[in-house]
Amino acid sequence: MRASWSALHTSLIRKLNLRSSQVDFQAMRQADPELAAFGSIPALLEHQHARDGDPAARFAVIRALVMAAQSDQRYRSTAHLMVIVALWPGLDAVFWRLSRGFPDRRDDLPAEIVARIGEAILTLDLDRVTAVTATLLRNVERDIRRDMVATRVVGETLKSIADPVIEALVVETAESVEVQPQDLTDHLACLAQRDATLLRRVFLLGETQEEAGRALGLEPAAARKRYQRALAKLRSQQKAPPVLSHSGSPVGL
């Protein structure tokens, strides 16, 4: 069974409560004046999670922790964990936004978010980034959302056209009466890639023609024109008899 989001947080806190982590933090305090003001890891985390704290001071602490995590010092692993836990309120908001958008992937999100934020901490270019906290959280949510949307589109596209929901959409919209139980990709293979993607977004993601077109860089009028033209081509393809190759197998479908 996958660890729940709250259980994962508890596990991270438990690691930071180890004596070895406390020893590492004392070394970090000696190396960076931004951390010296905090006598313990819990004191630092309380400061970072306080709603009425000074944002500039919190950002400075996060930057110092990220620097420690990217260093070659023995305390880098502890600093890495501290950044994740210090960012937890923001990560919690990311988790719930993504879980609402992708409820079927909720069990995968805890590990995915922690893995992504962990990698982002180690690869962040501090010389080019000022808003460390916002950059880390925004990039993690953007990358996970992008990958999950892509996975959803691929998964739905590879569904059999016999799926009643997709079949109903295709039959009703394309006015087809003889849709065979084939891969949806086969039915769209006659279209240009952008037109096929436009139809997939409308059929499978429930986007309007304008929304799907905007995602593809099309003006609303151009998106509607492409949509209607793609449906017309689908209708003509489905009415036409299949073209056989020399081996007797259908081609072009």
TrEMBL record:
Coiled coil: none annotated. InterPro entries: RNA_pol_sigma70_r4 (IPR007630), RNA_pol_sigma_r3/r4-like (IPR013324), WH-like_DNA-bd_sf (IPR036388). SUPFAM superfamilies: Sigma3 and sigma4 domains of RNA polymerase sigma factors (SSF88659). It comes from the Bacteria. Gene3D superfamilies: Winged helix-like DNA-binding domain superfamily/Winged helix DNA-binding domain. Residues 188-235 form the RNA polymerase sigma-70 region domain. Pfam families: Sigma70_r4 (PF04545). This is Sigma-70 family RNA polymerase sigma factor.
